[in-house]
């Protein structure tokens, strides 16, 4: 008998199953609103021009070699990424009590951070928003946490944030629990706390001694403004919190498959830095030994060179504006069709995703009848909506609801 004979089939991963179903569909006007990747007005993937340019420079640079990077990655990358997150003048940086570790995109940074918290600090519970990015639970559980718990976040009835439920659940969390917070552009709801609500969240977390682990997958991509999209993280740092933050460069640099990420640590005293770094080094050494260099070199080159930095900022404005325009176009089209319900949430939400409010049966109907591929939760990726399909998408939603 094979040793593998009793292995059971695991559950499918919804977005990837959806992608495959989309690829297999032969219907001419099919629309893919599942996966979170930027698309141009023509529905095509986009390699940022500044990335292409820097790749040519790097390819021509014969001083670069293929030796291993240090275990904690390329310093020129992680320093620049940490400064981009916290702001160059951040007290934590000036006082040398913050540092970054290059890791494997957002997911890998979350995983390294989670392992550090579970194994080194002995953290037991992690809390994630209901709903959240579907991978948080798996990443933190595999990292060694005892238990994951939800905090209330989304209110179906208001199609907005349930701040009272959120705060109440935080108040009930045991001390030292890890609270996963989306830095901006909450996935999947597209609904972020206001600045005043962030202050209330910080108050409760400080009082209850809860530990923030920010997930920053969309800095600059959400609003087009790097400062605005990092406001919450910077605010927590200014309040004196110690925290972790996982940064992804998949969306804002379009470097999805290069796996470029940074894990920022903010401590309250510089004297703890060497010990913390040495423990992170052991975690990485035992997991993947050291990170890949290509994507990190690109990002480091751009962030450390004002001319390219400005060009990149132009690109993030292009991407975020296209998404914002498509939100307006979809809402307009639904209102023109007099589709029952209030569609203002489509433009109120921010970032790549919109929580449409369609239920599971309606979302499945969108796939089966209209060949519009979306998550069963009603989440759509706004990047998949284009000037040429927005009318079709709106009509499909209209037909589904009426
Ligand atoms: N966190 C959130 C909230 C996300 O939406 C994503 C990507 O969809 C990630 C983390 C991680 O992405 P990656 O590992 O590709 O950087």
From TrEMBL:
GO biological process, any? aspartate biosynthetic process
Q: Where in the cell is it found?
A: Cytoplasm
Identify a single GO molecular function assigned to this protein: L-aspartate:2-oxoglutarate aminotransferase activity
Keyword Repressor on this protein?
no
Q: What enzyme class is recorded for this protein? A: transferase
Highest taxon of the lineage: Eukaryota
Keywords annotated in UniProt: Aminotransferase, Cytoplasm, Pyridoxal phosphate, Transferase
Among InterPro entries, the record links this protein to: Aminotransferase_I/II_large, Asp_trans, NHTrfase_class1_PyrdxlP-BS, PyrdxlP-dep_Trfase, PyrdxlP-dep_Trfase_major, PyrdxlP-dep_Trfase_small
In its keyword annotation, does this UniProt entry include Cytoplasm?
A: yes
Q: Name one GO cellular component term.
A: cytosol
Q: Which Gene3D superfamilies match?
A: Aspartate Aminotransferase, domain 1, Type I PLP-dependent aspartate aminotransferase-like (Major domain)
Sequence ranges assigned to domain Aminotransferase class I/classII large in this UniProt record: 29-397
**The protein's Enzyme Commission number:** 2.6.1.1
Where do transmembrane segments lie in this chain? none
Q: Name one Pfam family in it.
A: Aminotran_1_2
Q: What is its main location?
A: cytoplasm
Required cofactor names: pyridoxal 5'-phosphate
Q: Which NCBIfam families match?
A: PRK09257.1 (NF006719)
- Relay the record's extra comment: In eukaryotes there are cytoplasmic, mitochondrial and chloroplastic isozymes.
- State the family it belongs to: Belongs to the class-I pyridoxal-phosphate-dependent aminotransferase family.
- Please report the name of this protein according to its UniProt entry: Aspartate aminotransferase
């Amino acid at each position: 008998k094979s040793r593998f004979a009793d292995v059971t089939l695991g559950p499918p991963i919804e977005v990837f199953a959806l992608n495959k179903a989309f690829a297999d569909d032969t219907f001419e006007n099919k629309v893919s609103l599942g996966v979170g990747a930027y698309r141009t007005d023509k529905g095509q993937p986009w390699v940022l021009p500044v990335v292409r340019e820097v790749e040519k420079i790097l390819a021509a640079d014969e001083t670069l070699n293929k030796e291993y990077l240090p275990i904690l990655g390329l310093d020129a990358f992680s320093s620049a990424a940490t400064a981009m997150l916290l702001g160059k003048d951040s007290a934590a940086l000036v006082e040398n009590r913050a540092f970054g570790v290059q890791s494997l995109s957002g997911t890998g940074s979350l995983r390294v951070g989670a392992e550090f918290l579970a194994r080194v600090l002995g953290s037991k519970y992690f809390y994630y928003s209901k709903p959240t990015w579907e991978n948080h639970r798996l990443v933190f559980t595999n990292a060694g946490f005892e238990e994951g718990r939800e905090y209330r976040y989304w209110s179906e009835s208001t199609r907005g944030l349930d701040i009272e439920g959120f705060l109440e659940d935080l108040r009930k969390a045991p001390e030292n629990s890890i609270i996963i917070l989306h830095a901006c552009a909450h996935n999947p709801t597209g609904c972020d706390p206001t600045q005043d609500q962030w202050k209330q969240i910080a108050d409760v977390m400080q009082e209850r001694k809860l530990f923030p682990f920010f997930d920053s997958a969309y800095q600059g991509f959400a609003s087009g403004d790097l400062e605005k999209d990092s406001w919450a993280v910077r605010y927590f740092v200014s309040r004196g919190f110690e925290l972790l933050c996982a940064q992804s460069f998949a969306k804002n640099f379009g470097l999805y498959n290069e796996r470029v990420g940074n894990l920022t640590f903010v401590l309250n005293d510089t004297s703890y830095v060497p010990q913390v770094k040495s423990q992170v080094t052991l975690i990485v050494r035992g997991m993947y030994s050291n990170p890949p260099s290509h994507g990190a070199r690109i990002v480091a080159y751009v962030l450390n060179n004002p001319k390219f930095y400005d060009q990149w900022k132009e690109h993030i404005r292009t991407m975020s504006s296209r998404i914002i325009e498509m939100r307006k176009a979809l809402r307009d089209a639904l209102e023109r069709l007099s589709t029952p319900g209030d569609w203002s949430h489509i433009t109120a939400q921010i970032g790549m995703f919109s929580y449409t409010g369609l239920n599971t049966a309606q979302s499945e109907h969108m796939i089966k009848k209209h060949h519009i591929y979306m998550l069963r939760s009603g989440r759509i990726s706004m990047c998949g909506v284009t000037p040429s399909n927005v009318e079709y998408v709106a009509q499909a939603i209209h037909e589904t609801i009426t």
